[in-house]
Amino acid sequence: MTAGSTVARADTAPAARAGASAVAATPDRLRYDVTLRGDADGSHWTGRQRVSFRNASDRPLREVFLRLWGNGDDGCGAPGKPSPVRVSKVRGGAPGRLTVGCTALGVTLPKPLARGERTAIALDVSIAVPERNSRFGREGAFRFLGNALPVLAVHDAKGWHLDPYVSTGESFYALASDFRVRLDHPSSLKVPATGRTWTRPGKPGRTITQSVAQRVRDFAWAAGPFRTATETSPAGVRVKSYWSPDTPAAGVRLTRQDGVAAVDRFGREFGRYPYGEIDLVMTSGFGGGMEYPGLVLLGTTEEGGAVVHEVAHQWWYGIVGNDEYNSPWLDESFAQYANARFYGWDTLGCWSEDDWPSDSAALTNSMAYWAAHRDEYHLVYTAGSCALADLERALGADTMARLLKRYAHDHWYGVSTTADFKKAAQSVTDKDLGPFWKQHRIR
Q1: Is 275 helix (H, G, I), strand (E, B) or coil?
Q2: CB within 8 A of 77, min separation 6: which ones?
Q3: Are 127 and 77 in contact (CB under 8 A)?
Q4: Rounded CA gap, 8 and 2, in Å?
Q5: Is residue 142 a contact partner of residue 297, using CB atoms and an 8 Å limit?
Q6: Which 3 state secondary structure label does DSSP give 336?
Q7: What is the DSSP letter of 423?
Q8: For residue 27, is the peptide bond before it cis, meaning its omega torsion is within 30 degrees of 0?
Q9: How far is the C-alpha of 192 from the C-alpha of 239, rounded, in Å?
Q10: CA-CA distance, 229 to 279, in Å (whole number)?
């Protein structure tokens, strides 16, 4: 396999040439059972992980791939400094060698898995939080464990998706899965996590945080001496807030207020938030924000932070999934459009053809393009949200609202593509949207 590309195995290439659109994304119906123990300050977690799955494809499944996204920045490490995420003692299959910068591990199954059959693999996991302030990193006494847990890659009509990690945006593509996670940690640490969580006493001086998350695409958590507060939105969503003591109090209040309002508003606009709980994790030095199912990481100043945009991601990538490496606009542009609507920004004339830097720049470019043109990546947010605002004006506000709610419903817990959205938009109007897509470089 070649790093930096979508890899099609030899036994899947013929299908890709002959009706690839009929190939189901697999493995699906995944369930992760995880038990991890954290050290004194949450910097190192070790334990066992099991994932069971089904083959949804007509073709026998001969192997699976684990994505160790936590190794993305550090790759394969260096002498005396190993990769942050390591796996060992794999059971249920024969592991190969790490590839794609040590972010992909192939596991050959004992026998081909036929369509509809289930199996499982299990492995030991060791996670060392890097010393950088990032989605998988740390800030002072606080630890962020985004994309730290190994997850299974997706195989679809294009083959195995083994794209490289990008720090500019996201490379992630996963199917909705169930997680049951048990985190054993010092009682001095609060541990916000994806899913519905509860705690119970562990051994002396330790606490068990348990989480159950259904139909989510990833699992993330944080650890540290957070201050906490819990409230319930008018629509019944439990919003749990965690913040470092040096986070400005005014920013914490504003973030909590906007977070509660956003989860209810987007529930009305796109479909009721299905997970019951969302955690807002705030610190003063985190750069911007980062979304995970049921948990968002937020840099927070006196003016608040990006909570509305990150909450919108619960729908646009979380519930309505997409391949974030190949179609980043499908989550970032949609989340930013929702953000603009929430705050009532004036979007009339906010972008034009003259603002595109080159003929090769397009809203629907992949992260391969944006990673090579980092100074243009803002277009996914600016031009993307403006394009959707222009579409709203072209269709009418009521029609656009119906379109988005129906589009979300039709792809709830699934995976959408640009073609899917264009088809959905065209279905609600008699206008030919071809010129609109061309003008906004939605290809």
Answers
A1: coil
A2: 71, 83, 84, 102
A3: no
A4: 10
A5: no
A6: helix
A7: H
A8: yes
A9: 11
A10: 10
User: Distance (Å, rounded) from C-alpha 381 to C-alpha 169?
Assistant: 11
Do 338 and 350 meet the contact criterion of CB atoms below 8 Å apart?
no
Residue ranges of the binding site: 309, 313, 332
Distance CA 333, CA 307 (A): 15
- Which amino acid, 289? G
Angle between the 418-427 and 397-410 helix axes, to the nearest 10 degrees?
130
Segment 182-240, tens digit of pLDDT: 999 999 999 999 999 999 999 999 999 999 999 999 999 999 999 999 999 999 999 99
Do 46 and 127 form a contact (C-beta atoms < 8 A)? Answer: yes
Res 13 pLDDT > 50: no
Longest dimension (CA), the chain: 67
Q: For the full predicted model, state whether its pTM sits above 0.70.
A: yes
Q: How many helices (H) and strands (E) does the chain have?
A: 9, 21
How many Cα atoms within 13 Å fall on the side-chain side of residue 53? 31
Among 35-39, 188-192, 216-220, 356-360, whose mean pLDDT is lowest? 356-360
Annotated binding site for Zn(2+): 309, 313, 332
Q: 380: pLDDT confidence band, cut at 50, 70 and 90?
A: very high
Query: Which residues, 6+ apart, have CB-to-CB distance to 194 below 8 Å?
Result: 179, 181, 211, 213, 216, 218, 219, 220, 221, 279, 292, 293, 294, 295
Measured CA angle at 42 (ends 40, 47), to 5 deg: 95
Tallying the residues shown for the chain, one arrives at 443
- For residue 232, give every residue at least 6 positions away whose Cβ sits within 8 Å of its Cβ, in sequence order, or none: 238, 239
Q: Which two tokens stand for residue 438?
A: 């061309």
Tokens 């962020």 sit at which residue? 144
> What domains sit in the chain, N to C, each tagged with a CATH number?
226-314 (3.30.2010.30), 329-439 (no CATH)
- Which residues, 6 or more positions from 344, have their beta carbon under 8 angstroms from its beta carbon? none
> Is there a contact between 178 and 215 (Cβ–Cβ < 8 Å)?
yes
Instruction: State the pLDDT confidence band at 5, using cuts at 50, 70 and 90.
Output: very low
Composition of the chain by helix, strand, coil, percent to 5? 25, 35, 40
SS3 call for 393: helix
Q: Residue 335, exposed/middle/buried by CB under 10 A (0-12, 13-18, 19+)?
A: buried
H helix intervals, 286-378: 307-312, 329-343, 367-372
Q: What would the two tokens of residue 76 be?
A: 């394969």
- One-letter amino acid at 352 equals S
